[in-house]
């Protein structure tokens, strides 16, 4: 089983991005497999988006809902998705997380609008 297979089987993954000074910032997020990448969905103006825009170096690890790691972190490279790709990520999350995913995505769209969230693609392993 590959790192990508293991991570996409988890309900939550711990996405770690890095500040300019090198300090790590970790956040538990939902993630789903999209071809050969790990796809993540988040608020468009979040700190992690700003850090990824500056430097796509990340690590990802399986975790629980509170962000406690449940396994080893693997290195990865993250890129932000455009509007069409972000919609694809939302659709994949709805399939994986079913009713909870649909309700969460709907609530977010009502609060923030469609452009208020963004997809992130992580290539695992470098």
Offer a few descriptive terms.
126 residues; alpha+beta; Pnp Oxidase, Chain A; 7-stranded antiparallel beta sheet; 3 helices; 7 strands
Largest sheet report: 7 strands, antiparallel
Series of H and E elements? HEEEEHEEHE
- Domains, number: 1
- pLDDT below 50 for ≥5 consecutive residues: which ranges? none
Please bin the fraction of helical residues: 25-40%
| Rg from Cα | 13 Å
Shape: globular
Structural class: alpha+beta
Word description of this protein:
The structure is a single chain. By secondary structure, the protein is α+β, with helices and mostly antiparallel strands. It has a single domain (3-124), classed as Electron Transport, Fmn-binding Protein, Chain A (Pnp Oxidase, Chain A), CATH 2.30.110. It has helices spanning 3-9, 47-54, 83-112; strands spanning 12-18, 24-29, 31-34, 37-43, 57-63, 74-80, 117-124. Strand 1 and strand 2 form a beta hairpin. The protein is globular, with a radius of gyration of 13 Å. 30% of the residues are buried. The mean pLDDT is 94.
Please specify the SSE layout and strand pairing.
Blueprint lengths: L2 H7 L2 E7 L5 E6 L1 E4 L2 E7 L3 H8 L2 E7 L10 E7 L2 H30 L4 E8 L2
Antiparallel strand pairs: 1-2, 1-5, 3-4, 4-7, 5-6, 6-7
Protein name: Pyridoxamine 5'-phosphate oxidase N-terminal domain-containing protein
InterPro entries: F420H2_bilvrd_red/Heme_oxyg (IPR052019), PPOX_F420-dep_Rv2061_put (IPR019965), Pyridox_Oxase_N (IPR011576), Split_barrel_FMN-bd (IPR012349)
Organism: Micromonospora matsumotoense
